[in-house]
Amino acid sequence: MSKSPIYQSRFIKFNCCVLVPTYNNAGSLASVLQDLLVYTENIVVVNDGSTDDTRDILTGFSDLEILHFKENRGKGVALNRGFKFAQELGYEYAITIDSDGQHYPDDLDIFLTELENRQPGDQELLLVGDRNMGRDDIPGKSSTGNKFSNFWFLVVTGTQLSDTQSGYRLYPLNVVKNIRFYTRKFEFEIEIIVKSAWRNVEVKNIPIKVFYEENRVTHFRPFWDITRITLLYMWFVLVSFFYIHPRNKYQDFKKKGFKRFWKEDIVKSQEPAHKKAAAIALGVFIGISPFWGLHTLLVFSLGAFFRLNKVIAFLFSNISIPPLIPFIIYGSYQMGSFISGNGFDWKLSMENFDSSAEIFQSLGLYILGSFVLAGLFALVLWVVFYFLFSYSEQKHVVKS
Length: 400
Prior knowledge:
Residues 262-396 form the DUF2062 domain. By secondary structure, the chain is of the alpha/beta class. It contains 14 helices and seven strands. It has helices spanning 8-13, 26-37, 54-58, 75-88, 108-116, 140-157, 173-176, 188-198, 222-267, 273-288, 295-305, 310-317, 325-339, 356-399; strands at 16-22, 43-47, 65-68, 93-96, 125-130, 169-172, 202-207. It has a seven-stranded mixed beta sheet with strand order 3-2-1-4-6-5-7, with helices on both faces. The relative contact order is 0.08. The mean pLDDT is 86.
């Protein structure tokens, strides 16, 4: 009588499978599948048009569910088709694992434990393995690319992850089936976690082990794949700033009402006074700065980077609304003139700009002055609001 795989009962309990996309990994594929079979029989393999011995190797695993593509279509297509196939087989979750041998099958326990710890009513869960990219044995280019992706994922979703590019993940298939995808290759794994987060899915990291072999087979093409990921994030930034973030805040406003929304989302009473004041200072600094047309992008990006209240920062960045723009430009020019040693030019008129050289010189004075003026206003408002928020917090403590 054959022994049941170690975690088979747990996989059955959650209608979960392991999904293995593979392309020209004949050197490691058989050992990866053999190791997985120690833990579960619920394995789905997608052969993404491999041209090596992959198809022959898979004939030795006839008990597994296997899809073969005639030609290579990209990891994104392989994953997406694998998700649909897994759903057709009745699965509700899929744990994806790369076939290059860098992941440890015994880490399946960590994914299953997260499912077991969920409570009724919890939001849907998408797990991404955290490979601890700060380790010394992680290639520098992988660590740098991951940091880039982590930052922009935070900007467009508001969720902090330490690893956004690991292929060892758990997906809720009932969520995935309702998302329309447009990417086909490695950037698909970015698209799916961003769009899941936008649908109120909890996207979180869990610690996993990873083995980096010096000459392991990888199909990641640094220039083209990073270019596609960058373009994808550029699109996500636009969508998130002009649709997702405003939509979410509007929905929160409708749900909570003005008083609760102001307290929780604008004032955020649980945040310390210095951070609330810093959000105001950041918004004012960006609003006065000469980056016209980029204020919204900058305030949300820097707000995410410094972990400040982006709503407060955005509101105060609107200091540069049309009625105030002439005063900001005039004040910036005067400040630049003063700093450069020319003193305040109170008799400013169009005659001051009757040559190209004078126009460029004045533009330089404006840019210089705008940064100084922005810094001064930001500093003053930080001090003012820090004491106001501190006083308000002390008053609240005394009352309670």
